Amino acid sequence: MKRVQEVDVVVIGMGVGGEHVAERLAEEGLDVVGVEAELVGGECPYWACIPSKMMIRAGNLLAEARRVPGMAGDSQVTPDFTPVAARIRDEATDDWNDQVAVDRFTRKGGRFVRSRARLAGPGRVEAEGEMFAVRRAVVLATGSRPQIPPVPGLEDVPYWTNRQAISVKEPPASLLLLGGGAIGVELAQAFTRFGTAVTVVEAMERLLPAEEPEVGALLAEVLAEESVTVRTGARATGVRHVDHAFRLTLESGEEIAGQHLLVATGRRPQLAGLGLETVGLDPDARALAVDGQMRAAPGVWGVGDVTGRGLFTHVAMYQAEIAVRDILGRPGPEADYQALPRVTFTDPEVGSVGLSEHAAREQGLRVRTGIARVPSSARGWIRKAGNNGLIKLVEDIDRGVLVGATSVGPAGGEVLYGLAIAVQNEIPVERLRHMMFAYPTFYRAVEDALTDLGHD
Ligand SMILES: Cc1cc2nc3c(=O)[nH]c(=O)nc-3n(C[C@H](O)[C@H](O)[C@H](O)COP(=O)(O)OP(=O)(O)OC[C@H]3O[C@@H](n4cnc5c(N)ncnc54)[C@H](O)[C@@H]3O)c2cc1C
Ligand SMILES: NC(=O)c1ccc[n+]([C@@H]2O[C@H](COP(=O)([O-])OP(=O)(O)OC[C@H]3O[C@@H](n4cnc5c(N)ncnc54)[C@H](O)[C@@H]3O)[C@@H](O)[C@H]2O)c1
């Protein structure tokens, strides 16, 4: 017979989403148990956002230094990955030790349990041989895991996921990257800048296929200029690992080789083994269905990647705050994803918000688009080397508001901010047209894109 302990809240999974809920509720004085099977903080600080952005920052420095000739003198760049790997170990992950995060939570009054937890009926959670009787809320924040495609042979070879790629001490001599999505393009560029021979194999017709088609075309050009081999519309039909090398066979019959193989073909919510059926939820669902207040079932809330909405840290944090409010019984707006922003941190950065032109048309909207190219703007022309980019706006003609926008450029993710405000707040396009745009900023290209609206 297990010991039963009464608590107010149990949070299962202490990634960015769960950690935020657990800390906030503990601060509010609730009796909170946080259960984490691996590291408190989850994927983002240890194997994802933060260390990958450290690699990217280092790669960007190399790229800027390589742009000096013809612009500001001479430069000779000798890449060295040692400081990058050291920064990831020392500053980002504390050598994959979460003690600081555990202490932060317990100092706020929470109780931490390192275990894999599961639901054991309404208001019941089992973890580390203990049973918790939960008075107020169970929060499911179990995140996502890599989705591995059914390529024959893949299960038998030592492929990498983001975890191994992030943990390297040296860049590989060559890398096959299966998947040209967010991870694929970010890491392809970061590694090529350190001398890795990278080949990206993307099944769809373009890189970042969920983004506007102009984005995939632009990124393919940028990556090709940096010696990345990009194979789009390419399906892998088999893989072997022979003599310390991976050999990937494509549908065409061609075989490509690399020292390592990184599989970055998407992620799927982590629901297996959670005991969802014990609270009347579908254990085979693709994602945890939640309402606008993050409720999944009576007494059960869900936040973060597990909900399948966006799979971004900022979405997990946004949902976490809504769940906290709701658990505390405080009123507030429901989750609203109409202006969900995304930024892929390539150079140029790819920012987008709301609907792509295709998605808007699929929804039956009458749309028109406007495009401006960053190199044609004053700031882009001044910048010269490394000035690739574009602004694309999608207007709902009937309402006269932007429903989507894309901003690619040297500061594409930051330029997105104004566009996100416009989409979120449905500011009339007519009013945007009469704003002043500081000269010569990158965001001034938005004015050109507004002028271009309707001139398709
Ligand atoms: C390479 C890479 C780069 C990324 N870069 C960015 C970026 O730049 N910006 C951005 O916004 N997003 C980025 N993301 C996405 C971001 O990492 C995720 O959206 C974010 O981590 C989701 O947080 P989460 O709390 O939902 O889940 P997670 O961070 O996955 O945390 C879930 C936690 O639950 C634990 N867990 C699971 N099951 C159980 C159980 N039964 N019991 C106990 N614990 C359990 C897991 O061990 C894990 O620690 C990136 C992802 C990857 C892979
Ligand atoms: N900057 C950021 O915010 C950032 C960066 C990295 C990752 N992430 C998050 O992590 C998640 C996972 O990243 P990801 O790049 O793995 O997923 P993704 O969904 O962004 O891209 C996966 C890509 O793999 C392709 N693909 C799928 N099966 C394939 C196959 N068999 N062969 C070849 N290509 C195939 C898809 O068409 C897609 O382009 C993303 O959805 C994103 O939410 C965010």
Characterization of this structure:
It is a single chain. By secondary structure, this protein is α/β, with parallel strands linked by helices. It folds into 3 domains: 4-41 and 98-145 and 268-327, 3-Layer(bba) Sandwich (FAD/NAD(P)-binding domain); 154-266, FAD/NAD(P)-binding domain; 341-453, FAD/NAD-linked reductase, C-terminal dimerisation domain (Enolase-like, domain 1). 30% of the residues lie in helices and 25% in strands. Bound molecules: flavin-adenine dinucleotide (FAD) and nicotinamide-adenine-dinucleotide (NAD). Residues 8-320 form the FAD/NAD(P)-binding domain. Belongs to the class-I pyridine nucleotide-disulfide oxidoreductase family. It comes from Streptomyces chengmaiensis.
List the defining traits of the structure above.
single chain, about 450 residues, alpha/beta, FAD/NAD(P)-binding domain, Enolase-like, domain 1, 3 domains, 8-stranded mixed beta sheet, 5-stranded antiparallel beta sheet, 14 helices, 22 strands, globular, binds flavin-adenine dinucleotide, binds nicotinamide-adenine-dinucleotide
What's the arrangement of secondary structure elements?
Layout: E1 4-12, H1 16-27, E2 32-36, H2 43-47, H3 49-66, H4 82-92, H5 99-107, E3 111-114, E4 118-119, E5 124-127, E6 130-140, E7 144-146, H6 162-166, E8 174-178, H7 182-192, E9 197-202, H8 213-225, E10 229-232, E11 236-242, E12 245-250, E13 255-258, E14 260-263, E15 267-269, E16 295-297, E17 300-302, H9 313-327, E18 341-344, E19 349-354, H10 357-362, E20 367-373, H11 378-383, E21 390-396, E22 401-409, H12 412-424, H13 429-433, H14 445-452
Helix pairs in contact: 1-9, 3-4, 3-7
The structure holds flavin-adenine dinucleotide (FAD) and nicotinamide-adenine-dinucleotide (NAD).
Flavin-adenine dinucleotide is lined by residues 12-13, 15-18, 35-39, 42-44, 48-49, 52-53, 116-117, 141-144, 162, 183, 270, 274, 304-305, 311-314, 316.
